[in-house]
């Protein structure tokens, strides 16, 4: 199975158009257009009944002590953990593309609604919550359930660029057994044992002006 995007090339930088935040010279970061990127796939295996899409950043700092703190840098050798940016399940087997901006076009304070997708171009598909739900949980202006896609916004003082891996799973079931306010971890667990094929692509992103959005460390 093959997966690609017209919005960015595998292994290259993700444009700011598809990020939650972009660099701001005065304030470090500013909200961006936060559009979901285009994705398309082909060469699905026989017997596929649905697809699931999971997007995660494996480079999130495991501790927040130094994150976005003036005069500090998040060290490159700090252990990293997953941060889920998008979980989309029950994509019908006859669908083979997602247009840019279909499921996210701008930052939505307190999060987009879900899991059902209103006016969806992909009927019956469902969104899980992403990890901005937890990130903003103590923010009086931004707290809420963040369903669907919300793009990159790594620490502006991180010593490394972050990877954003988009993984598409071809499944042997029509509907994933997750319900309500499910997340990326729960979707991954439910997928186990049902994967006929998978494909992925990875984009890079950085909000630190001294760290390029590539695999090279500062």
Write a short abstract of this structure.
This protein is 6% helix and 30% strand.
Question: Please, could you describe this protein's structure?
Answer:
With 218 residues, the chain is mainly beta. The protein is 6% helix and 30% strand. It is built from 2 helices and 10 strands. The protein has a 5-stranded antiparallel β-sheet with strand order 8-6-5-9-10, with helices on one face. Strand 2 and strand 3 form a beta hairpin. The protein is globular, with a radius of gyration of 17 Å.
List its traits.
single chain; 218 residues; 30% strand; mainly beta
What layout of secondary structure does this protein have?
Elements: E1 2-4, E2 21-24, E3 28-31, E4 39-42, E5 50-61, E6 80-92, E7 97-98, E8 126-127, H1 132-135, E9 162-171, H2 184-191, E10 195-205
Antiparallel strand pairs: 1-4, 2-3, 4-7, 5-6, 5-9, 6-8, 9-10
Distance between the termini: 34 Å
Number of helices: 2
Strand content: 25-35%
Biggest sheet features = 5 strands, antiparallel
- The order of strands across the largest sheet is 8-6-5-9-10
Order of helices and strands: EEEEEEEEHEHE
The assigned structural class equals mainly beta
Q: Please state the oligomeric state of the protein chains shown.
A: single chain
- In helices, the fraction of residues equals under 10%
Radius of gyration: 17 Å
User: What characteristic shape results from the CA principal axes?
Assistant: globular
Number of strands: 10
Mean pLDDT score: 95
Q: pLDDT below 50 for ≥5 consecutive residues: which ranges?
A: none
């Amino acid at each position: 199975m093959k997966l690609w995007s017209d919005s960015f090339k595998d292994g290259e930088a993700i444009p700011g158009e598809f990020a939650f935040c972009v660099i701001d010279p005065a304030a470090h970061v500013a909200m961006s257009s936060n559009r979901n990127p285009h994705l398309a796939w082909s060469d699905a295996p026989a017997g596929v009944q649905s697809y699931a899409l999971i997007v995660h950043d494996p480079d999130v700092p495991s501790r927040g002590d130094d994150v976005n703190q003036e005069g500090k840098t998040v060290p490159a050798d700090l252990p990293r953990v997953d941060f889920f940016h998008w979980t989309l399940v029950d994509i019908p087997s006859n669908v083979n593309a997602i247009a840019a901006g279909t499921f996210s076009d701008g930052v939505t304070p307190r999060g987009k609604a879900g899991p059902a997708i209103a006016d969806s171009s992909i009927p019956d598909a469902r969104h899980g919550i992403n990890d901005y739900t937890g990130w903003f949980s103590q923010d009086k202006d931004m707290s809420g359930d963040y369903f669907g896609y919300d793009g990159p916004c790594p620490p502006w003082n991180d010593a490394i660029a972050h990877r954003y891996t988009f993984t598409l799973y071809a499944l042997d079931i029509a509907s994933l057994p997750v319900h309500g306010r499910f997340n990326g971890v729960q979707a991954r667990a439910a997928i186990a044992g049902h994967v006929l094929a998978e494909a992925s692509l990875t984009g890079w992103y950085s909000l630190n002006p001294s760290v390029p959005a590539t695999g090279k460390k500062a």
